[in-house]
Amino acid sequence: xxxxxxxxxxxxxxxxxxxxxxxxxxxxxxxxxxxxxxxxxxxxxxxxxxxxxxxxxxxxxxxxxxxxxxxxxxxxxxxxxxxxxxxxxxxxxxxxxxxxxxxxxxxxxxxxxxxxxxxxxxxxxxxxxxxxxxxxxxxxxxxxxxxxxxxxxxxxxxxxxxxxxxxxxxxxxxxxxxxxxxxxxxxxxxxxxxxxxxxxxxxxxxxxxxxxxxxxxxxxxxxxxxxxxxxxxxxxxxxxxxxxxxxxxxxxxxxxxxxxxxxxxxxxxxx
Length: 271
What we know:
By secondary structure, the protein is of the alpha+beta class.
């Protein structure tokens, strides 16, 4: 049996009982809807401009609710309470933080304090020397002085020892020796005033003494040359001399002393 193909216009069929398919939104329409959901409050710009115009710019706190887009702003103002957008409640004293008060005789200063920290050795030393150096505890003294050399190689320590020149027992070594080549840069362990430069008659050779105030001073001995003069103000880390082997010395090194009320103490307790 042959199949007969019908040609021509299709006849109108019965009405469709299924609902027509809903058109899917495009990506551009979805992005536009998303932007409109998070759009800023229409009065935000005017509110901020009004607040700034009245000089109320110290603190502005803003919170946007995701659904209602309610705006809450707390702005301290000399012109009175600020009306909250979207609310009938003014931002009065109850909406702001409590005031901090102080008695009239309490001193108020905005100076930055000298913080005692390894990151601020000058401030630490200043705080430490608010008392006489002789009253400074070992814990407070530690780290207040900087190294007098770029590299510290300890040799002969502070305290009783055998005299390397005479062989005598029980000699009091008044400083800490550091092995170093001659003509190596020597630096001030802290800021201060140069109190002495020149020849030390008791074995120190060429010597520099720096007064750091309130009973604390440091000395640098056996120097090959001196680069500062008495009365000169120096800063921590400033080069003051070159190492050597002058005086009672068996070779190039730096003899470093810390003196508290003119009495030598172990330098390592301050470094």
